[in-house]
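Researcher: Structure prediction, please.
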Amino acid sequence: MLEENYQALLKVYDEKSILIHDMKNHLRTISGMIKEVKLEDCEAYIAQIIGEIRKGENTVWTNHKILDLVLNMKFQEARKAQIKVRCKSDDMSDLELSAVEICSLFTNLLDNAIETSVKCSEEMNRRRNVVCRRHGRKLVVSVSNFMEKELDGQAMQSLKTTKKDEKQHGFGLRSVKRTIREREGCMKVKVLGKQFQITLYLNGFFS
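Model: Predicted structure follows.
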């Protein structure tokens, strides 16, 4: 799973690098079109370039390069699944979690949220909120989304995967819990009707 996410991050870097490398040639082509007064062709060409830029467009959410890459990757996946995303974050530039810990925590939390949200039949419920806060040395991460149906007591206790092959899935939450233990933190789950919220508290800063 980590290897797949790492390769996805590398792909983002590669696409941006290629676009930057080719930009000088794009500008020369546009300049030539302007000189030859091919304005309609020029406009179409610029629109095509803008479309390519937007495909790999990344937003600075946290001021932490790895965390922002992970968030942007997962938010793009959510949007492709027609899930609306809202994110609020404090400055995480001095976050002390390793790249593996960041990938483990956030990809698993956000993958689970996508898996749950995409099943909602009502479009208004296909959305999720992500909040990252800093309280002293503590990192507080909250992910909330709507579910297709309410959880019963047993499901609340186990929080098992809903995928058909349970033996091959369900490791995501275990991975999250392991990172929380290693960082001397805790996890809280809150359910109100069909709204599900999971909040993590862990040591993420030195001071």
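Model: Helices lie at 2-35, 39-55, 65-80, 99-117, 153-158, 171-182.
Researcher: Thanks, that helps.
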